[in-house]
Amino acid sequence: MNEKIAALKKEFPALGGRFEGRRLVYLDSACTVLKLRCAADEQRRHMLELGGCGGKRSSHALAAAMEENFYAARSRVASFMGAGSPEEIIFTAGVTDAVNLLANSFPFSPKRNEVILSPVEHNAVFLPFERLASAGKIKLRVIPLKNLKPDLEAYRKMLGPKTALVCFTHASNIFGGRTDIAAAADLAHAAGAYLFADDAQYAPTHGGGGAIYGADASAFSGHKLGAPYATGALYVKRELLGKLRPWRVGGGTVADVTLAGGRYKVKYLGNYQAFEAGVQNCSGAAGLAAAIARLEKCGFENIRAHVSGLVDDALKSLAGIKGVRVLGERADLLEGSLISIVPLKKGFSVPDFNLYLNHQLKGRFIAVRTGRHCADLACLASGYRETIRISFFAYNTPEDTAIFISALKQYLSLLR
Question: Which entry of 167, 282, 298, 374 is annotated as an active-site residue?
Fold first, then answer.
């Protein structure tokens, strides 16, 4: 194991814990990454040593320190996401929060009211736009699925003068691999549309995100890279940010309120300030910045190489097992951090296998994800009702994969 990867692994206390006397084998990082000690320490420090009224509401020294710390976190996140300026970063509670904000703030018009989604979008992206479509506010279209990937030729033909926004996940949370965001963005821009990239699965093992490849907006969730829960950010390019309409308003978003002729007139602040209503999760942002700093210290090139090696090792082991099928192509899967498996052998029950991994192994239990993975569009388009998903992060080892493979073989041997 690379020295920097080995040092990073020590930063995850949960790996050394035992549950009911059993050791954890964690292969569910696509759902959430175990939490970094430095992120928790920084969040705690921020809450206990600062913890005052930030957000430019008060003008005392403690408030100034809070605001300085908060802006430093914004700058760190902006650099991580590839934004042109910290002013293009809106702090959110994660991708779900970010997409709800974007969907409800986007400047749709009667002439441009179509949203195109890739067929592998997470429900965090699909549902906010589906709700708008159900209310008759937009028209929603989904790109066909081809070989478990978005059909780019079909996508090209779907684009038109009414297309306002296109959404592409940067890395699928069910089929793995990654998407060519640059190509998708170029096609959207040629049609006069904007492109949003969901970086939730991409950012933790690649670093950066869609902004680097031409996306007009992108988002990631802090909990997927070892940061506190309910943290994350939405990047919006300045040109688009100026067109968004504040959706969730309140304290901290207002520049001026006047009264004339019996009517109130509200002037909202510009840039990110119009979209961060209320007291923000400043301590969470501090923890998020600490997590990003620690991963950058390790080097995303090292994390990427390590995770790709784990995927490769797992694919080689799975290739020799009869009774299950790996979804996706090897070359593509090596670009991601997860593998989805479907059973072929009669009598194989995915829920039962999950119970087996949690309760029937001596001295340990294996955490994986089973089901639809909040990827209903992909399941409907592919016909797969559920999968078994194993996913990796920097702290995983080939031994973790070997333990899972052994358990899978044992379970298959029990079936008649």
Answer: 374
pLDDT in tens, 347-367: 999 999 999 999 999 999 999
Higher pLDDT, 54 or 209: 209
Give the chain's mean pLDDT.
Answer: 96
Distance between CA 348 and CA 116 in Å, rounded? 37
The region that residue 363 occupies, defined by phi over 0 for left and psi between -120 and 50 for alpha, beta otherwise, is left
* Token pair for 233: 């950010």
Model confidence at 135, pLDDT cuts 50, 70, 90, reads very high
Where along the chain do its domains lie? 3-30+299-414, 39-296
pTM above 0.85, yes or no: yes
> Averaged over 155-160, what is the pLDDT?
98
Q: How remote is the C-alpha of 222 from its chain's centroid?
A: 8
Residue that has been written with the tokens 């509401």 in this structure: 57
Asked if 374 is an active-site residue, the reply is: yes
Name the fold adopted by 39-296: Aspartate Aminotransferase; domain 2 (3.40.640)
**What number is the average pLDDT over the span 185-199?**
98
Alpha-carbon gap, residue 361 to 63, rounded angstroms? 52
Residue 91 contacts by C-beta under 8 Å, 6 or more apart in sequence?
74, 77, 231, 232, 233, 272, 276, 280, 281, 285
Instruction: Give the residues across from 22 on adjacent strands.
Output: 19
Tens-place pLDDT, residues 289-334: 999 999 999 999 999 999 999 999 999 999 989 999 999 999 999 9
Q: How crowded is residue 166: how many other Cβ atoms within 10 Å of its Cβ?
A: 28
Contacts of 334 (CB under 8 A, 6+ apart): 308, 311, 312, 315
The CATH architecture of the domain made up of 3-30+299-414 is: Alpha-Beta Complex (3.90)
